[in-house]
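User: Can you help me understand a structure? I only have the sequence.
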Amino acid sequence: MNLMMLLEMAAGGFGDRVAVGSLNDGLTVKQIFDHAGAAAQRFRSANVENVAMIDIASPSLPVCLFGASWAGLPFVPLNYRLTNQELDVLLERISPSIALMQPETKERISNTLGVHPITRDDLISSSVPEIETSTDWNMDGEDTAILLFTSGTTGEPKAAVLRQRHLVSYILGSVEFMSAGEDEAALISVPPYHIAGIAATLSNLYAGRRVVQLPEFDAAKWVELVRSESVTSAMVVPTMLSRIVDHLVSEGSNSPGLPTLRALSYGGGKMPQPTIETALELLPDTNFVNAYGLTETSSTVALLGPEEHREAFSSSDESVRKRISSVGRPLPTIEVSIRDEEGNELPSDESGEIWVRGEQVSGEYKGLQLTLTEDGWFPTNDGGWLDNEGYLFVTGRIDDVIIKGGQNISPGEIEEVLLQHSAVTDAAAIGVPDQQWGEKIVAAIVLHEEQKVDEEELKSSVKEKLRSNRTPDEIVFLEELPYNETGKLLRRVLKEQLVDLGDGSTV
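Assistant: Let's start by predicting it. Here is the structure, written out as tokens:
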């Protein structure tokens, strides 16, 4: 199994379709194939061990990705927003390598590293010869396809290993070959170094759907691209959707809406229920999908589909309506289990750690011991529970649990209640040191523009719906919460903002 198998099928089945870019000047599937072949020759001749990418999304992304697989080398997309020192550290770990970067990036990294730079223009030459379909790539599914570095928020970044069989299994198990119509276009606005960006590139190409890229997210530009490129599907993270909704609302009653957008998937973080409900109202003809997955699982492992969104949104049954806050049910190829701290399986409606198992699940980090259990289960470090119909609810990272008075408290359940208040646009609950309780609960709140709310009113709303020990001890109002570009709330950064490390008092 090799990713090149997917590209070879696509080139043979619909090679003349535009794969990435605008209809007028984008690269076709066959051109991606030809450029990947030329890139593979260049990568092999460079005598390197990895193919890195330190660049924004562009048509060079699929060329670099498939070219690396053709050459039998791991593809390693790096976060171009890192500091110079952080980039040097990661590049040293994957040296020797050839790296796609622009001249300004080359100036940022150390010349002593074994890195051979290559630019987009170098990689995609207009004079590349047409390459005959060939299978001189290695079909060993155990070969490393991609190394993705984790964010390293709690220590040194780890390099998640995704082997060829993991990614191919994910695509074959979740995407139907050539299932997209010739008029379909997908807008990708997540960066190349995130698993969602990689998965979207692979799945849309295999389906035959043209990819439109937005390297730097901006709500107004996103809406403009959907309209100008007749985008039919897109993937966003919750913070993006919140800004898109705000932009559409700001256009008022004369807004043309997004008439071509048939499907919108979201994931990468907790979606505030008011945001998705407003989006469903604004875009009634759009099919919404909530996708839950991790880097270590080669992307999506559970989905809440369009009809499930509509059913939950319109239902008067509280247990059904609550499912709009779930991530749906596992894919047919995936098993999900909720376990306690000893690894024992828990019954429905009991919270614990989410474990997953399936062919696409890696659970492997370069240079570290395999994290899979003997029978193939991967403990995700995400907390959650399954209802009696098999819907999965994710409460957040287990490391984020607040321990107050010896009791474990999930920040997610507090945040969910706070976000239901009409004045609140964003909320986060964290634990800060406290001499009496060990930790106390501090809620950071972002209000809608020109909205005000009393602190006690917010505390009361939590107390009414949750047990009293879940009520925030303090509430702090901020202009915004810290997120990374893939929609992940940076709780450590937030805690640093709220806590004076000298005496543990909130500021």
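Now, to help you interpret it: The CA atoms of residues 34 and 132 lie 8 Å apart. The first strand starts at residue 18 and ends at 20. Let me know which part you'd like to focus on.
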